[in-house]
Specification:
By secondary structure, the chain is mostly helical. It contains ten helices and eight strands.
Length: 234
């Protein structure tokens, strides 16, 4: 089939061909279609024609199921994209609630450009587990422009993406603990509705403490360029 608008040839599949390409039984494909996990196929008489977008969606469903997501959750996430929900609603589906972070939509090719040679199945699975990535058919959504930029910068400097993701997992544990401390402080002394207004104060404390911690680490000789933990003599 030729896409008249794009001027390109689009590969199409009959139901049995699509199921075979995705590695699933035909009955599973029909079940996904009934659950509205797949967009409608193109109809030509009684024949249903699917394309590579449907195949990408099926592979996405398989990857999410392997990571422990339910069909109901996948359907809800799919509906969020197709119905144009806003960032706040998407964040709730991804488990982050309302956020100041800006999500970024990427093609798989664009993601590969950010992390050249590092976009492996293992790293994708780790990113899905962390909630950094979500998927919409053959498109990918990164939940935070800032985290995406920092991660790609570290990889360009030579840090393996697997190490960046593992560090991100550990940072999250500490960040959750710091968020809990600040929330407890505000809740103990101020009305609950003061928390959103005072969020910038919490971020300022974390940034200042992290800066001083890095200063102490470098001054102790434990930072980059030190040998055996000793400060080089002047």
């Amino acid at each position: 089939m030729v896409d008249r608008e794009a001027g390109t040839t689009v590969r199409e599949y009959r139901t049995e061909e699509l199921a075979e390409a995705a590695g699933i039984p035909v009955r599973t494909l029909r079940f996904y279609r009934e659950r509205k996990l797949l967009p409608p196929p193109r109809r030509e008489g009684r024949i249903a024609w699917y394309d590579d977008h449907h195949l990408a969606r099926l592979r996405t469903i398989a990857a999410l199921l392997e990571r422990g997501h339910t069909l109901g959750g996948i359907a809800e996430l799919t509906a969020a994209f197709e119905n144009g929900r806003d960032v706040g609603q998407l964040g709730e589906l991804l488990g982050i609630g309302w956020s100041e972070e800006t999500p970024v939509r990427l093609t798989p090719e664009a993601l590969a450009d950010y992390f050249e040679g590092e976009v492996t199945p293992e790293n994708l699975a780790a990113s899905l587990d962390l909630g950094y990535l979500a998927t919409d058919g053959d498109e990918i959504v990164h939940v935070s422009r800032r985290l995406l930029d920092v991660s790609s910068a570290l990889v360009r400097e030579g840090v393996p993406l697997a190490a960046v993701l593992e560090t991100g997992r550990r940072v999250r544990e500490h960040a959750d603990a710091m968020a809990a401390l600040f929330t407890e402080l505000i809740s103990a002394h101020l009305p609950q509705d003061a928390l959103p207004r005072l969020r910038p104060l919490a971020k300022s404390v974390v940034e200042a403490e992290l800066t001083m911690a890095m200063d102490r680490l470098l001054a102790s000789g434990s930072g980059p360029g030190s040998a055996s933990g000793h400060t080089p003599s002047s």
